């Protein structure tokens, strides 16, 4: 851009004041070498081994709901946790990929628990692989507990130092007449606040008392603060399933990367530990 003005305007001590000189300007063609855009993707590779990708959306993009820019963050390595737990009562193996696509592959010998783990995978977009055998000829208690303990441990391993994540998650899930609210903090401090009123003792063959025990076990090994609160509901199946769906969505929020945090630990202490 070339700008020309009168010498009086340029030499005057009041040249910054609003004046009305006679001047004109001419815009020259900008050389293509002045700016260089390498597609529409900007990649930053800071030294904390996390890659952030910024994708600029066009105004006509309907897939991103018309937002001006969509930001996605990916770790340089996979966030996968694997745990094998063997006792005299159970044999459990768990693999969870936090950056998966919602692949559910669970076989615990407890059909209703498998159904709930499918909700965790589908609505959290985690790839969850669970295999468990146990003394279910007695009851489901030990298998239910050890599966939850293993999932919590796998989650702990997958999260690592928890750098760059949102840390907090909050979601309310409706299922017909049922409505359940879940709020969680990946703080490293295990705590469960549980307020469900499930009207029947069983759903199929599954003892509904085991729902609380499942989440307490998961909280203990993952180092998670978890609040579960029922806002409405009369059907036992709906209440429990809404709980797992809300938990999955809240956990998804908490484990996703915050692009503004740039890989730092989401704590004023600078560390999120298990103790």
TrEMBL record:
Q: Does the keyword section mention Repressor?
A: no
Please give the residue ranges the record annotates as the region Disordered: 59-79
Q: What class of enzyme is it?
A: lyase
What are the UniProt keywords, alphabetically?
Amino-acid biosynthesis, Histidine biosynthesis, Lyase
State its Enzyme Commission number(s).
4.2.1.19
Q: In which pathway does it act?
A: Amino-acid biosynthesis; L-histidine biosynthesis; L-histidine from 5-phospho-alpha-D-ribose 1-diphosphate: step 6/9
One GO BP annotation is:
L-histidine biosynthetic process
Q: Reaction catalysed?
A: D-erythro-1-(imidazol-4-yl)glycerol 3-phosphate = 3-(imidazol-4-yl)-2-oxopropyl phosphate + H2O
Q: Name one GO cellular component term.
A: chloroplast
Biased composition of type Polar residues is found at 59-76
Chief localisation class: plastid
> GO MF annotations for this entry?
imidazoleglycerol-phosphate dehydratase activity
Q: Where in the cell is it found?
A: Plastid, Chloroplast
One Pfam family cited in the UniProt record for this chain: IGPD
Q: Where is the signal peptide?
A: none
Q: Which family does it belong to?
A: Belongs to the imidazoleglycerol-phosphate dehydratase family.
Q: Please report the name of this protein according to its UniProt entry.
A: Imidazoleglycerol-phosphate dehydratase
Species this chain originates from: Cucumis melo var. makuwa
